[in-house]
Design goal:
The complex is a heterodimer of chains A (368) and B (225). By secondary structure, chain A is an alpha+beta fold. Chain A folds into 2 domains: 166 residues, no CATH class; 156 residues, no CATH class. Chain A is 49% helix and 20% strand. The radius of gyration of chain A is 29 Å and the shape is elongated. The two termini of chain A are 32 Å apart. Chain B is of the alpha/beta class and 225 residues long. Chain B has one domain: P-loop containing nucleotide triphosphate hydrolases (Rossmann fold, 3-Layer(aba) Sandwich), CATH 3.40.50. Helices cover 34% and strands 27% of the residues of chain B. Chain B contains 6 helices and 10 strands; from the N terminus they run E-E-E-H-E-E-H-E-H-H-H-E-H-E-E-E. In chain B, the strands form 2 sheets. In chain B, strands 6-7-8-3-9-10 form a 6-stranded mixed beta sheet, sandwiched between helices. The longest helix of chain B has 18 residues. The radius of gyration of chain B is 17 Å and the shape is globular. The chains are: A alpha+beta (368), B alpha/beta (225).
Chain lengths: 368, 225
């Protein structure tokens, strides 16, 4: 580090400029990952937070909740399996609700489940809906933030049914819309897809079980249904895969860019210093010493830049507008910081190769 | 063998093969004793630089043997040669070739750093060397702030830092006017004598030869004198 630190101090502007690029790239990595996380939970927090490991879907539904219809009888069959710890039926549909007494309309996702079952929402205000009583719903808190209150009445335009908000829950969204919970009966009445179905039906069956039991359960499934993991069910939420894929691709590219920017910068600097490295080698510096010096510089630069970016990222979150979907866990920051550092060091390998090739004899005047 | 710091035994260096073969050094034998300051002169392309590169353990001879401080360095690996250069050879290059971002003191300390023993003692030694060569007031300056003569004096101080057996100078006066050039060579000669080191200087400048104990002429790869 003798040479590394002294050179950094001497060529401040040069390293400041490359450092600035690193800070910006790292900042972008953190902000986009925060956004990807935030959007992911804004999109699908209801599924992410659901106390279920697997979902049973109708075989031809292509894993899409809104296409899946399963008869209620199958719930009992699934529950009967020894590998299944618990299972609960869930009805889902997307509708537009009209606030009675105003022209306001809101797109929501209806989740219908047993009010005392494992999927029942955690009520943070008001009371839970009743399994027997029709017309009671528990809505996600985001509806409250746009002006809905306990006791407000909402009308479904399609079926002309009216619902009353009796409680609020939190962190429940599906496909970027707030989730409204109600009992299964209410859902069956307003779901046009069930009009011609005789039987008592639901959309899916959420299952709690060990991943080791997956094969067993899959084999003993009733006819016409299929088993998917929670992750697969997230991927099949409309837009989820596309949204996350785009952001993940950007992050991946940023890592590649960070590596290349550093690689090129240090390579050019190393080329510039070929003669100097020749002299150092003639004086008795071995390649290992010079390599350590370069890697030391890269690490020092990368660590400083990443630290600044992390600080800036948390600074930026403070001035972000309320309601912006942004979530950054310490875990992820650490993971990406380490990855950036690794990429930076990988980028310096090109320079090390160059240094290894430099011959000490370059120091002597005119030797061929 | 006592007192012989550097010994060339029938050393040849041949570049290329067949029709492209160039004999840079042809069967050279030479010895340099402790306290001796030898000048190597000769026209361009005569093989002076090749000679210096071999003496400096930067290049291996094609034939013959090379003994430095009674150790045969002909058969050493590149890694061992690097060690030999660090411990036993002091270099003064043509245009001083100081590291641009190191202060004068750090130029010297770098040599101890490479040896892996940088401490208070080496700092003291560097400061002593610098003030001895009249550079005490320049210790915290960067090379860019120094004159050409001062830079070469720093290079001489650097070459002495690790207490080498032999000092090799590659046209140390090339970038200096004759007055400053002479000062530098005088200083080099004085240090070699007082410290009982051996030194070889390749030079074009005939006005410096009276400061040397012996002048060796290389022409077409052969030694005269």
């Amino acid at each position: 580090m003798f040479l590394a630190i002294r050179e950094l101090k001497h060529s401040k502007l040069r390293y400041l400029l490359i450092g600035l690029i690193m800070v910006l790239v790292a900042l972008l990595v953190f902000i986009i990952s925060g956004l990807a996380n935030g959007l992911s939970s804004d999109n699908a927090s209801s599924i992410q937070n659901m106390k279920a490991d697997y979902f049973v879907m109708e075989h031809d539904s292509k894993n899409k909740l809104n296409r899946s219809i399963i008869s209620m009888e199958k719930l009992d069959e699934i529950r009967a399996s020894a590998d299944v710890k618990a299972a609960e039926g869930l009805g889902q549909m997307m509708i537009t609700l009209n606030k009675i007494g105003s022209s306001e309309k809101t797109d929501v996702t209806i989740f219908a489940t047993d009010a005392s079952g494992i999927l029942a929402p955690k009520v943070i205000e008001g009371t839970n809906y009743d399994n027997k009583k029709q017309g009671e719903v528990v809505a996600d808190r985001s509806l409250k933030e746009v002006g809905y209150k306990l006791g407000d009445s909402l009308k479904d335009d399609l079926s002309d049914k009216v619902f009353t908000i009796v409680g609020f829950t939190e962190k429940q969204s599906y496909s970027h819309s707030p989730v409204v919970y109600m009992n299964v009966k209410g859902w069956q009445e307003i779901n046009p897809a069930l009009k011609n179905q005789e039987k008592d039906s639901i959309s899916t069956i959420a299952v709690q079980m060990d991943s080791k039991a997956e094969e067993n359960v899959r084999e003993s499934l009733p006819e016409g249904v299929t088993l998917i993991s929670k992750e697969e069910s997230l991927q099949s939420i409309p837009g989820y895969k596309e949204e996350q894929g785009t952001l993940k691709m950007m992050i991946a590219f940023l890592f590649v860019i960070a590596g290349f920017v550093l690689a090129v910068f240090f390579y050019v600097i190393t080329l510039q210093k070929t003669n100097q490295f020749g002299v150092l080698k003639a004086l008795g510096a071995n390649t290992g010493y010079l390599a350590k010096s370069i890697v030391g510089q890269v690490m020092l630069l990368a660590v400083t830049c990443i630290a600044i970016s992390v600080a800036l990222t948390y600074g930026v979150t403070l001035i972000m507008p309320e309601g912006m979907p942004f979530e950054l866990s310490a875990d992820l920051v650490i993971k990406y910081s380490v990855l950036l550092l690794v990429v930076s060091v990988l980028g310096s390998l090109l320079s090390l190769y160059r240094v290894a090739k430099i011959d000490a004899i370059e120091a002597i005047g005119r030797v061929s | 063998m006592m007192g012989e710091k550097l010994l060339f035994e029938n050393v040849s260096k041949i570049y290329g093969e067949g029709d492209n073969k160039v004999i840079a050094l042809d069967n050279i034998s030479l010895n340099v004793k402790a306290g001796e300051f030898v000048a190597i002169v000769g026209p361009s392309g005569s093989g002076k630089s090749t000679f210096l590169s071999i003496a400096g353990a930067l290049l291996s001879p094609s034939k013959g043997r090379l003994l430095l401080d009674d150790e045969d360095i002909t058969t050493l690996s590149p890694k061992e040669l690097t060690r030999v250069r660090l411990e036993k050879i002091g270099f003064v290059f043509q245009s001083s070739n100081l590291v641009p971002y190191l202060t004068v003191r750090d130029q010297l300390l770098l040599l101890s750093e490479l040896l892996g023993k940088q401490d208070k003692k080496t700092v003291k030694k560097a400061d002593e060397l610098l003030s001895h060569l009249g550079l005490g007031h320049r210790a915290n300056h960067l090379p860019e702030a120094l004159s050409g003569g001062e830079r070469q004096r720093v290079a001489i101080a650097r070459s002495l830092m690790n207490d080498p057996e032999i000092i090799l100078a590659d046209e140390p006066t090339a970038s200096l006017d004759s007055k400053r050039g002479r000062d530098v060579v005088e200083m080099l000669a004085h240090e070699v004598k007082s410290r009982n080191k051996a030194a070889i200087m390749v030079t074009h400048d005939e006005r410096m030869l009276d400061l040397c104990d012996r002048v060796v002429n290389i022409t077409d790869g052969k030694v005269f004198g």
